Amino acid sequence: MIMEDNELFDDLLRQHDPKQLAESHIFPAALTEKEKQETSASLQKVLRQKRAIISSEDERTLTLMQLRFQIEEYLNGDHFDSEKTVGFFLAAYIRILGKKQKSLASEINTSATELNHYVKNSRNLPMEIMVRLELHSHGIIPAEDWLGLISKEKFYQLKTNQSLREQQRKFVSTVAGMA
């Protein structure tokens, strides 16, 4: 393996000067097992130090942003996942906040029962609640994302519900000349 690396390096030196190589390539370092352990321990120490200076509020904000990105990635994808409903993401939102449903319901001025219906997907999230959730998250999760989740589910249902099409066929008369 070392011979292959040397040959690669020699080949690159023939094509580029050392400064260009330094600026454009990352060369693998051959570390001993002890050096790997020391490097890993050093990296872990730096990560712990960085995490220690992040406040719990900042960490919650970052986690909410991560949830927003998950929602948007799902909304931008072509695949429909019956698990990824408004209720699924609303439950994740509540979990990230470290709250009980009753507490969040109080903070957005709705009943705990009503919020529970949204989490269980037994009722559609009204636009007023979408806006309240946006305001509650300080704009991190926009109301449009909640609406997008509902729309994606409705679109899928409309697209795949053949029995609805058959039921509704009896209400439509065929225009002459069209089959």
TrEMBL record:
This is Uncharacterized protein. InterPro entries: Lambda_DNA-bd_dom_sf. It comes from Dyadobacter luteus. It comes from the Bacteria. One of its GO terms (molecular function) is DNA binding. SUPFAM superfamilies: lambda repressor-like DNA-binding domains.
